[in-house]
Amino acid sequence: MPDQLELLAGGRSHAGWESIRVTRSMEHGAGSFSLAVSERWPGLDAPRQVRPGERCEVRVAGETVITGYVDEVEASIDSSSHTVSVAGRDAVADLIDCSAVRKAGQWRGLRIEQIAAELAAPFGVRVRADVDTGKALTSFAIQEGETVFDAITRAARIRALLVVSDSTGGLLITRAASARVGTTLELGVNLLKCSVKSDWKDRYRDYLLKGQAPGSDYFNGAAAAQIAARAADGGMTRYRPLLITADAPDIAATLQQRAQWEANSRAARSLTVTAVVQGWRHAEGLWAPNMLATVVANELHLAAELMITAAEFGLSGTEGSTTTLTLTRADAYTLLPIKPMDDAGNFWTVPKAQAAK
């Protein structure tokens, strides 16, 4: 199917776009869109107006990528044109914007998806998990003033889980996927632009996690009150410690996983690759976050299998339809050991012979 975008708002279908920006990201929770649209569509006798607050759906090439609400509508007119700018977000945006409110105190003995479902229920947002979320949390409580999404994310972080929109108005609790895009992105072939950024300011050498666990007849005193775990980033050579207080009471083994995840994610996210490709689709479907893709840009000393963390679909009069991909190292979201760079400081994760082809 050719690149097409459709906005369904207020039970009506709208087209005739002048410019398009649709973003899905693993980091931002809710997908977003911004469209410039003519208020009068061809073949209609009267203009149709999109209204803020309307339930909406955005379809890219026939596939639903955002289900939520219109946030903003701005009309403008001059001597030669009359346009309307429409912006909105996925339904998960209500969880991002709104405070977490609960009369009762702590949750005890519930799994993360159960806590998330209770918090999201008043907003009509469904919650599901497509992975094993681990054992039930001993206890969990809302922090004063935090949003619903922050509370859910904080609970998920205890088990190194990801919380993302599922594109149909629901919330998905998941982990980094292993699905791969068959299309290699190669500079000079199908990659229009590429940039590589290394930023170490949020990276540390030593990570110390401290927490507590509920006591019992067999587990009490200092053993329960002073649980600690450590992880190290061998790529950081200078002394840079980071002390983190655990988000909830838990056992030492889980705390150790959290420490390792913190070290891995910060090291991996220190590398950000931005790639621009023509069109909105690869050989198997739409570009989407949480998929692995091979990027080859030898001029930038890059030949790696990376995780797509964001995909932005764009349309302009100068470049046509494009997709801007944000990628980082795949171990940013796993508990696997940190992958080293080679002696020259390059991050090669595909054979150099393949990268040279």
Automatic annotation (TrEMBL):
Superkingdom of the source species: Bacteria
A Pfam family recorded for this sequence: GpP_4th
Positions of the Baseplate hub protein gp44-like N-terminal domain: 5-90
Signal peptide: none
Coiled coil: none
Domain Baseplate hub protein gp44/GpP-like C-terminal: start-end pairs: 253-334
InterPro entries assigned: Baseplate-like_2-layer_sand, Baseplate_GpP, Gp44/GpP-like_2nd, Gp44/GpP-like_C, GpP-like_N
Boundaries of every Baseplate hub protein gp44/GpP-like second domain copy: 93-175
This protein's name: Baseplate protein
Species of origin: Pelomonas aquatica
